[in-house]
Amino acid sequence: MSLSWKLFLSYLGVIAISLLILSLSTAFVAPVTFSEQLQHIPRMMGGGPPGGVPPGFQRGQAAALLQTLEAELDANFRQAVNGALVLAAVAATLAAGATSWTISRRIVRPIREMSRASQRIAAGHYEERLAVQADDELGELTRNFNRMAEALAQTEAMRQQLIADVSHELKTPLASIQGYMEGLQDGIIPPTAETFQLVHREADRLQRLVRDLQELSRAEAAQLQLELHAQDANELARSAVEWLRPQFDDKGIALEVALFPQPVRVRADFDRARQVLLNLLGNALQYTPPGGRVTLRLDRADSVARFAVEDTGVGLASDDLEHIFQRFYRVDKSRSRASGGSGIGLTIARHIVEAHGGRIWAESAGPGQGSTFTFTLPLA
Ligand code: ADP
User: Fold this and answer.
1) I need a labelling partner for 233 at 20 to 30 A (CA). Which of 43, 54, 150, 247 fits?
2) Span 154-166, pLDDT tens digits
């Protein structure tokens, strides 16, 4: 039952209890008090029979007596009713007070608990949860509170994990730069152009990592500002392929593109969607040995356009397929790091695709058997 109904019914309950007490009081207390008052009347009348002329009274005197009697009766009746009403008022106030107090406590208790829990959460105890006790608005509020606490706990866990990951990622290039510098200072490493280039490469890696992290933090905070327009998916694919073709030629990998025969209008941010394609094609280039082949295929299905980047490269084990979209996940850490990979590219790609309302996934028949990365974008 909803809280407003409960409140409404409880007020009706309080009124009903008061009325009941009032009517009980007038039904039982008033007659008793009234008959007590009536006891005094015969004394007043000198003990004569009620209704007759009392002994020793003239008719005129009897009329005067009747008048006095009426006035007395009226006063007694008022007194009796008033007495009953006072009693009823006290009893009704006590009963209504007790009922209201019980109801208020039932309503206020969960709110108090919530206030206490929110203070504990604010103090960093993210594990704090409340027991859902009712199925009304307060129960709903409690459930939402728990959901909020859960989200805060997750964000906090992600923040801690991110700090741990980032420090780990920064450690390697920094240690490497430090090693070169110490070697140069001690004269163990010769100050050749090659040494400086190695130091430069490490600094370059740090810079790329910082740039990727900025991008990742924007993506994870769902702050990717997308400029969504209707685009031709064929044009997107062509643009990414042409940009990377020289690098594929250099490495000796065939790059093929299978466009859709008609224009495929997608609702996308051209630069961001292209960034995803460049990332997938760049990975395919990186993880495919010379002599291999990479194909970008564009398809149309129901309400989406589907881009698939297929390669004949190193492939992925099924365990890895589940994790590669998580940040900092790399299958072969040393190989990926040596080529400047930070394990963030696919995470950013996933955020971009999902911000468009699409989906991204990877498939592979296993290590050494190539892999296919596919993502969808909604049709315009
Ligand atoms: P990185 O910058 O390390 O390439 P990504 O997030 O782009 O980071 O990729 C994460 C990991 O997924 C890579 O380290 C690599 O192990 C694996 N991976 C990505 N693309 C491919 C591919 N086409 N073939 C095989 N493995 C891949």
Assistant:
1) 247
2) 888 878 888 888 8
Beta bridge partner(s), residue 377: 305
Judge whether residue 342 has pLDDT over 80. Answer: no
Residue 325: CB within 6 Å of ligand 1?
no
Nearest CA to ligand 1 atom 19: 283
pLDDT at 137 over 80: yes
Ligand 1 proximity of 336 Cβ (cutoff 6 Å): yes
Ligand 1 centroid distance, CA of 200 (Å): 24
Distance (Å, whole) CA 134 – CA 141: 10
Judging by beta carbons within 10 Å of its beta carbon (0-12, 13-18, 19+), is residue 8 exposed, middle or buried? exposed
pTM of the model: 0.62
What is the C-alpha to C-alpha distance for residues 159 and 153, in angstroms, rounded to an integer? 10
Q: What is the pLDDT of residue 244?
A: 95
Q: In this predicted model, what pLDDT tens digit does every residue of 261-280 receive, in sequence order?
A: 999 999 999 999 999 999 99
Ligand 1 contact, 370 CB (< 6 A): no
206 — phi, psi (to 5°)? -60, -45
